[in-house]
Amino acid sequence: MYQLSVKGHFDAAHYLKGYPGICSRLHGHRWEYELIIQDKKLDDLGMLIDFAKIKAMMKETVEAEFDHTCINESKYFQNINPTAENLSKVIYDELNGTNATTKDFHVIKVTIWESPECSATYWE
Questions:
Q1: CA distances from 49 to 41, 83, 94 (A)
Q2: What's the pTM?
């Protein structure tokens, strides 16, 4: 089994509805995120998938949706709070939905940091 780890980031604001503290106010983060991709087979070049292809897909999906936005206004967060936990699952679902048609790879885990010390991870 082979695994790749690829990191990205975006800058975005959010607020937590119903939270009994200062995070209920609009504030921003430099969100860092990491994908773990896994498969048993390598291509003819000896790669699971080209890192450039993964990075391009990350920019077209995750960063295009969230960079320099208020995450609360995203279609994904109309009915749920944009917590790090929920954001990790949204990214996981979006990336697997995007690449499911090409069958190039499967993201098995997404970790997102809202600060250098605090992260949330989603996997199935």
A1: 10, 30, 18
A2: 0.91
Q: What is the pLDDT of residues 86-107, one digit of tens each?
A: 999 999 999 888 655 555 678 9
Between β-strands 27-39 and 118-123, what pairing exists: parallel, antiparallel or unpaired? unpaired
Q: Is 26 exposed, middle or buried (0-12, 13-18, 19+ CB in 10 A)?
A: exposed
Largest CA distance in the chain: 54
Q: Which long-range contacts (CB under 8 A, 24 or more apart) does 24-27 make?
A: 26/70
Question: For strand 106-115 and strand 118-123, is the pairing parallel, antiparallel, or unpaired?
Answer: antiparallel
**CATH annotation of 2-123:** 3.30.479.10
